[in-house]
Amino acid sequence: MNNILEKSPVNYLEALNWRYATKKFDASKSLSEADLESLLQAIQLSPSSYGLQPYVVLVISDPELKEQLRPACWNQSQITDASHVLVFANKKDFDQDLIDSYLNLVSKTRELPMESLTGYGEFMKSKLLGLDPETKAIWTSHQAYLAAGNLLSAAAALKIDTCPMEGFENEIVDDILKLGDRGLTSALIVPVGYRAEEDETQFYKKVRRTEEELFIHL
Predict the structure, then answer these.
(1) CATH number at residue 36
(2) For the chain, what is the domain count?
(3) Parallel, antiparallel, or unpaired for β 184-193 and 55-60?
(4) What is the pTM of this model?
(5) Which residue, 42, 88, 95, 125, could crosslink 144 as a Cys pair with Cβ 3.0–4.6 Å?
(6) What's the rounded Cα separation, in Å, for the pair 168 and 179?
């Protein structure tokens, strides 16, 4: 059966089959500035609840900083061998300033009067500001994961390798990167770069549950 995605300039499904969680990167290869910018734009364009994007992404290329992070990331070589390490850090808490700053951006970008956005702003505040800090942190981390998913797909389309990692000591990473000073905490780490030829896992067949197990058509 023909798939509409196969008609695109980049065969999206082929790219998803090509990608895998890279276990060993080629430390001699680095992303070009253009490719890095493309990945960052993909993150920037990611969907987010209400459009708020309550997270930041640290783009780490400094070898010394990567060496510092590696022990806190279960000593995984991807941290030091990848071209760049992207740390998705979500807000631990937030107040109305998060919403107000977004409304100001909407007003400026779409050339709308702030008064026309009052109702939407009050709706967001009624749904979000009453949440307890723990629930807020869970919600913001979910938004960071949406952006990370977009990164993985964009990288695959560009034949850039990635490895989404939850295997790290959150508090130590936060301390090294001084995330607490910014009201942030690390949610997910994604090294990006190019696979090493000797990484045998690139040749493994992709294992996924069947469509019958995954999808329920109603």
Answers:
(1) 3.40.109.10
(2) 1
(3) unpaired
(4) 0.94
(5) 88
(6) 15
